[in-house]
Amino acid sequence: MTKNLVYRIFADNPGKVFSYRQLSRRLGVTTKEQREDVFAHLKELKNAGQLTLLQNDDYRLTDAEALKVQPLASERKDHGKNFVKGGRPVEAEFGNDPIVRRRRTQGFDEPGDGQPAPGHTPYRERGQPGSDTITGTVALATSQYAFIISEESETDVRVFTDRLKFAMQGDTVRIRLRGQRDGRPVGDVVEVVHRVKTEIVGQLKLQGGFGFVSPDHRKLYFDVFVPFEALNGANDGEKVLVRITEWPEDSSRQPVGEIVRSFGPAGQNEAEINAIMAEFGLPFEFPADVEEESEAIPDVIPEEEIAKRRDFRPITTFTIDPADAKDFDDALSIQKLENGHWEIGVHIADVTHYVTPGTMLEKEAKHRATSVYLVDRVIPMLPERLSNGVCSLRPHEDKLTFSAVFELDEKGKLYDSWFGKTIIHSDRRFSYEEAQERIESGEGEYAAEIVLMNDMAKKICAERFRKGAISFETQEVKFRLDENGKPLGVYVKERKDAHKMIEEFMLMANRKVAEFVYGLKKTKPRFTMVYRTHDAPDADRLQNFALFAQKFGHTLDLSNPKKLSTELNDLSMEVVGRPEQNVIQTLAVRTMSKAKYSTEPLGHFGLAFEHYSHFTSPIRRYPDMMAHRLLEHYLQGGKNVKTEPVEEECKHSSEREKLAANAERASIKYKQVEFMTNVIGEQFKGVVSGLTEWGLYVEIEENKCEGMIRLSDLPGDFYELDKDNYRLIGQRNKKIIQFGDEIQVIVKAANLLDRTIDFEVVDDRPDSVKAREKDERRNSRGGDRSDRSRGPRGEKPGGGRGPGGKGGGGRSGGGDKRRR
């Protein structure tokens, strides 16, 4: 779906007005990705002065552009029914091939989303001079080659790394086409138009008076040379951040750089976590002027400010958060009304009262866009003075809040809603464990209120699922750490009623705020708002998932789209307690589309909400601050806000959210590997979670740590991959190993630098049989296809993971409070 195709429709029809839907029909748009492409191309063409936005989503060619273009009948063949998807292979997180996939988008170690930077989007009509060269964006597939994704080529162009001119993921390059190889166009980079980043994280190796930095990023294909004068005191074996200062023209040479920061000896906790932060561009501290602004904010609330607000201080109010939390950004209040109904208040920290437009605090919050939760630390969006102090809804203190207040009966039926600025006084701070004790025992302080609200929440949740919400969700791994950050244990977080109760009331607040703003204006254009949107899953990916589930005896009927959520929920219940439960549920989540922020009110498929926003976590999410400002503006009678600046902020927030999630996964993987270094030689029960031609991946049930067993190390036979049926088959004994099979493994090795774990199967056969087999393998090993390594630095060849691996994995409706 190229920009050229969109442009030609207008060029062939000068003066004619097309709506977004008309364009989609002409282009044969059927998938979410294609819809997003059309929307992005329209916006770029408008910004370039080639299209005019008339109203709502109607566009036409600008007058100046209409004078320049000449319709080309030969280029009209792509309209409507003749439109076909580009020639590039479909390679998504689940993709057409659930056994071995190539990750074309970011993985846990992939900062950025592979999109060109603003101002560097290429666009050139075919047939112009120099058409043997095209401009595009680098997407590294392996350490041997990259794909160049370009609007000027319907098929991605493969470029081998020795011809990349040291371009990296997301860089914009100009390439010269030079024929085909294996049916795919290939080319050479002739110019790096724009580099996304010039700093790399890696391990420093000293040789004489100079050094080399070997990158942590698994797909980077070059080391960086560091002369003596640029070492800046860094020592051999340390994790460092190197800034590249010289990019050589000759591919036989290496880029030259200087050490910007040393994190300490590689493999140590502080060095590795800081290296992850640097790799993903996460900040280490707040700028001094931001800290100064936050420290200048007064603690005392002026009486004139209190007078402007609805006073909830006399009403029973409490917070429920993790035991170690310090930033309390939501509280609940409860009181009985005269008519017998209950008034439930969802009170959210009024961050935007303190963080105002034009301040350095605002600028920094917008840039960070989200707090990042690594295993052993939080990188906050706001300075501690605000996040843990002034804005945090701490007990026994007056706090300014922005509230959504609901009138409900005991069955959870909603009668009325109110939104506005408030002041509260929290009577009690509960941990989730303390709230759960009250739910289970019915005893203790505020037990009656908590039990009542939990009963309401259950009924609200049941109604949500009746209307089509999806129950799949991934399991969250947590760690017990000592004072030095060393993992003492790994466990799966259990979500109990206390978590679900808070979640339901936050979901209600987010939903009703979105519905309120959407309903303020009955005609288009609607009032601009920040929505949290989640599209229905792509049909092809769903079909692949259904075929995969069928291998385990589970049938997924996709014939009726209206019953899709019911089918998925039934499957979720079927697999509970089965060996394949985690594999099926993880893949189901990854089959779903990814949620994002947008000004388009597209609804939320996973939650079954027509309109949904993020309102309840402004301390740690910038989109919530945006929603607060917009809601306050409209409550005060303000006119509609321009959409484009808000949409840009939504896009930035979505990108930062993905980056944060990838950094979090990287820290989890590191800690899992670190934990496994302490249990080398121990035995665990695991589940087969991925299959490739060189090995099988096993996830330990009790801690979700995943490692690999090489096929050449499987005892008793030589195994080959049966790709079509997602299994391994022994050549002699025909034994079958497939997804979801339980398997006993021994931890063979754990490599902290590569973040990889190696297992071996528990072999209970007699020693004489093992010795004879060992001799047979030694004699036949030469050239054996199954005796393969992971690839450079532990990478699975192709850059992907088996489908049971821990890839993208967004949530549909449940999960941690910070994800709501």
From TrEMBL:
| Domain of life assignment | Bacteria
Q: What is its EC number?
A: 3.1.13.1
Q: Which InterPro entries match?
A: CSD (IPR011129), CSD2 (IPR040476), NA-bd_OB-fold (IPR012340), RNase_B_OB_dom (IPR013223), RNase_II/R (IPR001900), RNase_II/R_CS (IPR022966), RNase_II/RNase_R (IPR004476), RNase_R (IPR011805)
Q: Which residues form the S1 motif domain?
A: 681-762
* Primary location group: cytoplasm
Keywords, comma-separated and alphabetical: Cytoplasm, Exonuclease, Hydrolase, Nuclease, RNA-binding
Q: Where is it localised?
A: Cytoplasm
Give, as one word, the top-level EC class.
hydrolase
User: What ranges does the record list as Basic and acidic residues composition bias?
Assistant: 768-798
Q: Which reaction does it catalyse?
A: Exonucleolytic cleavage in the 3'- to 5'-direction to yield nucleoside 5'-phosphates
The record's region (Disordered) falls at: 101-133, 768-820
Q: Which Pfam families match?
A: CSD2, OB_RNB, RNB, S1
Q: Where is the composition biased (Gly residues)?
A: 799-813
Which family is annotated? Belongs to the RNR ribonuclease family. RNase R subfamily.
Summarizing the function annotation, the protein's role is: 3'-5' exoribonuclease that releases 5'-nucleoside monophosphates and is involved in maturation of structured RNAs.
Q: What is this protein called?
A: Ribonuclease R
